[in-house]
Structures are given as structure tokens and as C-alpha cells.
Amino acid sequence: MRPTKKVTKASRFEILQKDCLEFLKSLPEESVDIIVTDPAYSGMNNKMNFGNGRIVGEYKKGGNEKWFPEFKDEPETFLYFLKLCHRVLKNNRHLYIMFDSFSLLSLGHIVRDVFDVKNLLVWDKVNFGMGHYFRRRHEFILFATKGYRKLNSKSIPDVWRIKRIPRGIYPTQKPVELFDMMLKASSSPGFLVCDPFVGSGSSSIGALKASCDFIGADISLKACRIAKKRADCFLKTGIDIYQKRSALPEDLKKSLQNKLL
Ligand SMILES: C[S@@+](CC[C@H](N)C(=O)[O-])C[C@H]1O[C@@H](n2cnc3c(N)ncnc32)[C@H](O)[C@@H]1O
């Protein structure tokens, strides 16, 4: 992949090893401009009994190597998490939270108790993955506002075709293009982007590409190390060492979606 032409050094860039709730509590009220996040839900893993699938959370002891602990996503904890998000987000700003199908059904409705939910976006991963019945090819991104704020463009569809990362450095690594889309739609240069579940740091690369500042956290030291190394290299060279290829499907490379990226 060609290096990103100009990477503006963020005036603030922090990745902290912290629990998401502790992290959000430590931030001042109304201090961030946008929240883009992809939590580690336990719902899906608890309901599925994968055969040969890659087990990523701590729900299954022994046998498989655990990559990271899961966020305990009981409805009460999730509501508390959302209230903390609301507290740190400035007024008239946007929030994007990713959901798999299981967590969307059990937790997605709770977002309405705290934010104004505006859209449920579909991430079409182009190639399908596991599934005992229909094979899964999509996830959801819930888009909501605190107060009123328009999108930067009126031409963005609610289905985003972006290929999954097949063998990433991190098991749940998301393509940076997902965060590019969120930030193109909702950020301005200099915005402080916040991600309480940073993982391999795809959201932080999106923030740097959009000339934004970034503050994020992950409970896993391994994740924080990966994300920091990735951002350091990106700032020095303009190359994303953990996603070297574009995740856009060929037929979309010249399309509207590409022009937005
Ligand atoms: C789905 S992954 C995020 C992947 C990330 N979007 C990427 O592209 O690499 C969720 C992350 O949440 C972290 N996590 C789990 N429980 C957490 C908690 N209580 N507080 C903060 N992070 C947590 C996990 O370590 C994991 O890295």
C-alpha cells in the first residue's frame, strides 16, 4: 500500500491501558468530539459454540489461547457505559458503536435510553465467515447523536461494503476504512476522537488520517502495545504496518464510497 501522503501529527494522541469504565470516568465532562468504538461483547461468544472458530474472549478456559478479556455486557453495565459516554461527549456530537447480531438484539435498544439513535448501519464484509445456519457476512454500526449535528455529507448510504481483515495482527481487527467512513461523515480536523475499546488501533489510524486528535483505551496490555507501535510507525512513515492493503472491494475503488475515503 502507498503511504498516506501527509500525516499531520496530532496535538494529542494517547492510548491507555485501562478498563473502559475507569477510562471514561477519568475524562472530563464534555471533553471529546466523537466516540467510535467496537466493544468486546460476551453475548455472541456465550451463545455460540464454535467448532473450529478462533476463540477470542475469556469465556472458554483452557485449550485455546485467550487474547483478551470480554467486557461484561450485562444490560446494567452497558447502560452505565453509555451514560459515561454521554457524559464525556460534547453536546451536538456523534457516536458510533459496533454490534454483532446477538449483542444488537440484547443491548442495542438500550442506546435509545441515553442517545438519539439515528441509523443502524450495516457493515457488509463482502466475504462470508462462520455460522452454523446462515453464514455471517455483516455486522452493525449504530449511529446516534447527543444533541443536533448534521452529517458532513448527504450522500453516504447505510450499507458499507468493506472487506474483513482475514489474518490481522489482532483477532478482531477491523478495517481502517470503517473508521474512515465514520470520521468522514462526522468529524472535522482537530476533533478529539475517543475509543474506549481500542484493540489493534484501527480507529486511531482513522483519526490520524482525518487530521484528528485521539484518546483511547484497552484493558489488554498486548492490544495497547500493538496499537501504539502501529500509530508510531504511521506517524513516522505514513504506512499502516498492520493493514497494508485497502479493504475496499475492486468494484468500489472508483465509486462514491471511495471518494469519501
Ligand atoms: C472487538 S476488540 C476491538 C478491535 C478494534 N476495533 C480493532 O480494530 O482492532 C475489543 C477490545 O476490547 C478490549 N476490552 C475487553 N474488555 C474491556 C474493558 N472492560 N475495558 C476496555 N477494553 C476492553 C479487548 O481487549 C479488545 O481489544
TrEMBL record:
GO terms for biological process: methylation. Residues 32-229 form the DNA methylase N-4/N-6 domain. The keyword Magnesium does not apply. One of its GO terms (molecular function) is DNA binding. It comes from the Bacteria. It holds the Pfam family N6_N4_Mtase. Its EC number is 2.1.1.-. It is an enzyme of class 2 (transferase). Keywords: Methyltransferase, Transferase. The keyword Transferase applies. Belongs to the N(4)/N(6)-methyltransferase family. This is Methyltransferase. It comes from Candidatus Woesebacteria bacterium RBG_13_46_13.
